[in-house]
Amino acid sequence: MATFKLQPPAFRPLPLGSISPTGWLQRQLRIQADGLSGHLDEFWPDVRDSQWFGGEAEAWERAPYWLDGVIPLAYVLGDQELIAKVTRYIDTIVEHQQADGWLGPRAMIAASGAAVQASYDLWGQILTTKVLLQAYEVAGIAGGDPAVREARRSALLRALRCIDRHIDRAPLFNWGQFRWFETLLSIAALYEETGEAWLVDLAAKLHAQGFDWPAFFNTPSGWPNAEPTPHGRWNYMSHVVNNAMAVKAPALWWRFAAAESDRTAPAAMIGQLLAHHGVATGMFTGDECLAGHQPTHGTELCAVVEYAFSLEVLLSVLGDPAFGDHLEQIIFNALPATFSPDMWSHQYDQQANQILCTVQERIWNTNGPASNTFGVEPNYGCCTANLSQGWPKFAAHLWMMTQDSTGLVAAAYAPSAARATLGGVPVVVSLETDYPFRDSLHFTVTTEAPATGSLWLRIPAWAKGAAIRLPDGTTVPPATGTFYEVNRTWEGTSELDLTLPMQPELRKGYGDAVAIQRGPLTYALKIGEQWQRINEDEPFRELPHADWEITPTSRWAYALAVDADTLADDVQFHEHPVGAVPFSPEGAPVSATVKGRELTEWDEEAGSAADVPLSPATSEEPLEELALIPYGCTDLRITEFPQLARDE
Ligand SMILES: [Zn+2]
To answer: Which of 35, 48, 624, 637 has its CB surrounded by the most CB atoms within 10 Å?
Structure first.
């Protein structure tokens, strides 16, 4: 009997729990666990009283969303209290699985929660397969109870069986139809283990019923989403979160169908999104549907964390280092910027040019007036539930194994240690670094017995002049935009140094506005900020969460005296200690100074900075020295600036 074989991914993520964050990343994850993420179930009704856990509140996506991020958070931190907490919730879901395999409540709700629908949108089940897959993987950690692992595996298989039967008679629609491909993650994992042919048939059925994303992006008459979504219009195809998730769909399906076009589609889709809706953070806008280049349009937090996860999957399946470059850009800029430094509040929509976070109507396409305020659930609670996955999944994807298990891949960079096996021998590789705030990375490989294999180091495309000092003391210049292979027999402790020189670059955006980027970081004007608490009569006051408006206390309407040819002289960078809260205006570990002039005619308009004045701009105002900090450290900022005329 011929057995169908899945296409193997280029790199396999290490089992959850194999990678431990260290240095600033460990502190960042601790901030997250001590903030909203680790405490949401203690006070937020949609998780605390969720029908998934026996309560009477939300019954569809919110509790599973929270678990999807807080499970990896607990395990990458190795936080026993948080592990115990998520274990109780996973056990509840597994123990209450219905006889036909259905997970959780069989509630009939509309996506908006506003009206009752005749049938269930399968997205809640699909999302929970993603959760159970992680729960199953962590149950395999050394010392785990095999019975627990088997119970979770069996629950996942039965849930997939249930989806299989369900869509025979009730084909996918709405969210389930547009997010069908998320099911492929667990189908692929279980098929590789069991070889049960119905799993492949289920994948084919979902593919046939689900929305054909690559075909939509490749419409011969032109991509229907090329233009910003008209004000007041909303649809599934231009929904920013759906698009952020969908860029990985072809790669996941390639593992089943093996069509070369599915390997090239993700980069092409990303190219289209950024070409028509990209801003200087590396994200595309959507508030809540794709909104064009204007730096005052919003990008929803769910889109940021889903896009990061998509890039992690693409890096794993396709092995293209460019996805790693882009992943770091999203994680180090758009992700931290949209949280308060203590991660007790977050935005629904962030703006690249964000001068005021207040409750008022803005140019959003359909989002509400509270969308850019910082709070527990500004605008709508999806992001509150879904925000947890950003940092932990990044930490869990820093290191991967090559498909043939002969190499350990440094896929993305942040301080961490990974336990893996090379040539059958256990090794520990650690990375000490303050990257992305510094350009030097120090690796230590430790093994108790000689281990033969490769260490593959990602060399970002921007890292011109990169250098690797090998364990034998020689220095080599690796090519940028590649993985550099260090192949040897590792014995005892070996050390390597990687230097990734960061040069400033000018990015041109909307209306020729310029943004300053250096390495993976985008820099933005630091604006003085005044935080004002709002909604103080809201319940659940026992924990330090709250809703906030932020108003500026310093001027922001500047044009920069910069030029692409002289940028290295125009901008000076300064290092500061990498402290307890690196992603905060006061804790910024690096800053830049640049000269500029105020543009008195550039004003606020409807709660945002008016359109960026066209470049080259002229001004009679005095030349001032301006301070920029990494975008991820800001709460208020200008990121896309007019450029002063050269002789100014
Ligand atoms: Zn959201």
So the answer is: 637
